[in-house]
Amino acid sequence: MRLATIRSTLLSLIGSLGAVLLVVVALQLANLRTLEQQANSQFDANLARNQVARGALALARERDAYYLALATGTPVRPETAMETDRSFAAFRIAADQANLGDGTATDGISVALEDRLPGMRQAASGALRLPLGSQARQNLALRWFEDASQAVADLRILRLRLLSQSDSISLGLFGLYSLRTHTLNLLDELMKNAAVVEVDVAVQTLPELQGGLALVRPDVSRVTEAASEVAMSVAPFEEFLRALGDEGRGPGINSFDSVAYAASGQRLRDALQAGEGVAEALADWRRVSGAAILQLDELQAATFGLTQDRLGALAAEARRSAIFWAVLLFSALGIVIVAVRVVLVSVVGPLERMRAAMLQLAEDNLSVELPKPSKLKEIGAMDDALRVFKANATRRRVLQKERLRLHGRLEETYGHLKTDLEAAAVIQASLLPQQAQIAGISLSSYFRPSHFLAGDTFDVLQEPDGRVIVFQIDVAGHGAAAALVSVASKYTVAQAILQRLPGTGLAELTRDINREWPSDLPYFTLILAEIDPATGHGTLVQAGHPSPLLLRSTGEVIVLGDGGLPIGVLPHATFVAIPFAFGPKDRLLIATDGVHEMSNREGELFSEERVQDLLRTCANRSTEQILTQLDTSLRTWRGDDTLDDDVTIVVLEGKRANEYQ
Amino acid sequence: MNISEEMNGNMMILKMRDSRLDASNAPALREALIERIASGQQSIILDLADVGFMDSSALGALIAAVKRLGPVGTIAVASMRTPVAKLFALTKMDRVFSINATVNDAIKSLSA
After folding, report:
1. What is the pLDDT of residue A217?
2. A334-362 pLDDT, tens digit each
3. A519 chain-B contacts, CB cut-off 8 A
4. Cystine design at A9: which of A3, A485, A601, B16 (Cβ 3.0–4.6 Å)?
């Protein structure tokens, strides 16, 4: 799985955790199941082994009973043999139950009992019919005793073989098993002793057996040895013995007093040898021996009980643990499922919904529904950020719309203004005399407003006496305001000229214009020139305007005037009139400062010198050609069609005498 | 409009840092001068050493300032370069402003 998403990362982490938990718990459960099965099978196997042990004990009792009957004539209880057979039958049932499997156990029983026991019993029953104390009966008694002892030993061996097949060590029961084995061995020894001693005492004390056999002698020293042997061999199991004593299961091995047992046996032997006190010594022996046998029998039964209890407890413990682990497993699975659900519902879900919302927002879809606010703090914060983002985006869109609307209005307004200005510019241009023939003077002009409307203006008028008056005005600045001022100034100048009293010179006229000009209006520069075509005499007043150039028909360029105050700067300013001769083919060029102050890309000005040089080189060309040349030179100089200031050029040309009527 | 200002006694020396004074910055120049006059300045020296070009719009701003200042105040102009000097000569501005070769000359002439 690729961990490309939060969902897959979180789910794989939780899944791995759950899987590890599952494996651990499954292994644990399997182990516990094995343990329980082991404990249960041990329980059954132990039960079967116990039946073997009980069978061996029953057989030992049968052996002792028939031995005593054969050797001393003691009557046998009729159920003795039945008890043995019952024990064997019980073993078979237990062996089937315990599933001991390979059949060695039942085979062992067959060999030990079913094949041999019926023959042995038949021989013993036959011997009982022989006279008591006869040699043949004694021999058969001894033979019975040995054969039966062998069968008991075989059963013990069978039990040990079964024990060795079982897994006693892993369950911690080895000690208990060992204790039981030793106890059973000792019990057999004590029972054997009891039988042998009884027979021996009877041989020596009963008159019908006197002069009988010396085949079976009491071996009291063997009794002593067996007692101390057992005491030693059970020493390592004190722990169990104490446990048995504490649990009240039996007297414990400690109650078997090997010294007292040996002493009692010794006393009986001494009494027999001395031939007196035999009855008391025998009674004491029977009490001690019987008590010891009873104690050991109780002990072996108690160890069996303890073993079964422990196995049962193990199985129960295994079951309890299994339940605990199973509960743990289900809890863990529950937690994993809850965790997966929480991750999906509370983390991954909101994140994915936010992601989808963000993608929609990124695509400018502001109508997208934002996910419901999360209770988790971090996701809530992200949620809030998303909400703020959306709100901002919505506001941005509104602002953008507003801006576009304003922009549209601006463009519309600008369009209106531009239309107005263009119309006004057409009117302004149409009010200017582009080309005029007045008396002996022809006028040519060149007019380029820098921005629709110009602050420049000019006009030409004829006096009743034939004199021609031309003027050029440049209002500081350009555009609509300057254009309006230029209209006012043009009107003012024209009115002054029309209302001029006879005999008033241009200087006085200009002074009056200056004085009358409202001081709160911008100033303007002015060239006011008057030419009498009849006499070829000219006069001009220069008021802050660039000096006009007089291009003689000879090619000579004369600069007229050296300056003067503009109109509207000083109310009491005075002006001077500059006289000049203006013959046929002479040309007077009046230009605003937009011409020589036109700057190129490097900021260099076109300059008056360049205008003069151009006029000199074009002296023999027509006025129209000169203006065209000037236009070309200025545009080349500027490098483009823009203008910083309005450009106006007026050229007056005197006609030849023969052209003048 | 880039102007540096310096006081000499009661005279304010304004150095024009722009190399061109034309229609584009004439309104700002006018505003700057009117503002100082409105705040009480009566003797103003304009240092035009850095100005390579001045047109009629900028001249209009100076004239408006003079008109605002009235007869009690003076505007002196110093360190004009040739193109500016030509404009002043053409328009006879020596009748309107005190024209000086250097700022020190202007200070002297205003102190006199």
Report:
1. 46
2. 888 898 888 888 888 888 888 888 888 88
3. 67
4. A3
CATH (domain of B62): 3.30.750.24
Q: What is the pLDDT of residues A488-502, one digit of tens each?
A: 999 999 999 999 988
Closest Cβ–Cβ partner in B60, B83, B89 for A476: B60
Residue A520 lies in a domain: yes
pLDDT in tens, A572-608: 999 999 999 998 889 999 999 999 999 999 889 999 9
| A570 interaction partners in chain B (CB closer than 8 Å) | 95-96
Interface contact flag, B23 A645, Cβ < 8 Å:
yes
CB contact under 8 A, B55 and A603: no
Q: What is the mean pLDDT of residues A457-470?
A: 92
Q: How many domains does chain B have?
A: 1
Q: Give yes or no: residues A478 and A594 share one domain.
A: yes
Query: Which of A264, A299, A328 is a domain's end point?
Result: A328
Decide if B67 and A476 are in contact by the 8 Å CB cutoff. Answer: no
In this structure, is residue A344 part of a structural domain? no
- Asked if A546 and B59 come within 8 Å (Cβ–Cβ), the reply is no
Look up the domain containing A301 and give its range.
6-328
pLDDT at residue A564 in the model: 93
| Boundaries of domain holding B39 | 3-111
> What is the 3-class SS of A435-468, one letter each residue?
EEEECCEEEEEEEECCCCCCCEEEEEEECCCCCE
Residues from chain A contacting residue B57 (CB–CB below 8 Å): 476-477
pLDDT for position A249: 53
In the predicted model, is pLDDT for residue A215 greater than 50?
Answer: no
* Phi, psi (degrees; rounded to nearest 5) at B6: -150, 140
Q: Which residues of B touch A476 (CB under 8 A)?
A: 56-57, 59-60
Last-in-domain residue among A294, A328, A362: A328
What pLDDT was estimated at residue A659?
A: 47
B96 part of contact set with chain A, CB < 8 Å: yes
Query: How many residues are there in chain A?
Result: 661
Q: Measuring CA to CA, which residue among A36, A656, A619 is closest to residue A317?
A: A36
Q: Is B60 touching A (CB cutoff 8 A)?
A: yes
DSSP of A246-309, one letter per residue?
HTTS---GGG--HHHHHHHHHHHHHHHHHTSSHHHHHHHHHHHHHHHHHHHHHHHHHHHHHHHH
* ipTM of predicted complex: 0.91
Q: Write out the E strands in A302-413.
A: none
Is A612 among the domain residues? yes
Interface membership of A523 toward B (CB under 8 Å):
yes
Q: Is residue A371 part of a domain?
A: no
Q: What distance in Å separates the CA atoms of residue A112 and residue A161, rounded to the nearest whole number?
A: 14
Domain count, chain A: 2
Alpha carbon A68 to its chain centroid, in Å, reads: 90
Which pLDDT value is given to residue A214? 44
Residue A7, judged by CB atoms within 10 A of its CB (0-12, 13-18, 19+), counts as middle
CATH classification of the domain holding A509: 3.60.40.10
Interface contact A593-B96, CB threshold 8 A = no
pLDDT tens per residue across span A41-81: 888 888 888 888 888 888 888 888 888 888 888 888 878 88
Q: Answer whether B23 sits within 8 Å of A477, measured CB to CB.
A: yes
d(CA A390, CA A359): 12
Residues from chain B that touch A647, judged by Cβ atoms under 8 A, are: none
Is any Cβ of chain A less than 8 angstroms from the Cβ of B21? no
Whether the CB of A566 is below 8 Å from some CB of chain B: the reply is yes
Residue A466 and residue A320 in one domain: no
Instruction: Classify residue A640 as left (phi > 0), alpha (psi -120 to 50) or beta.
Output: beta
pLDDT exceeds cutoff 70 at A234: no
> pLDDT band for position A213 (50/70/90)?
very low
Q: Which of A192-201, A536-545, B62-71 has the lowest mean pLDDT?
A: A192-201
Indicate the pTM of the whole model.
0.55
Question: Using a CB-CB distance cutoff of 8 angstroms, which residues of chain A are in contact with residue B53?
Answer: 597, 599, 603, 605
- For tokens 């965790």, name the residue: A339
> A261 touching B, CB under 8 A?
no
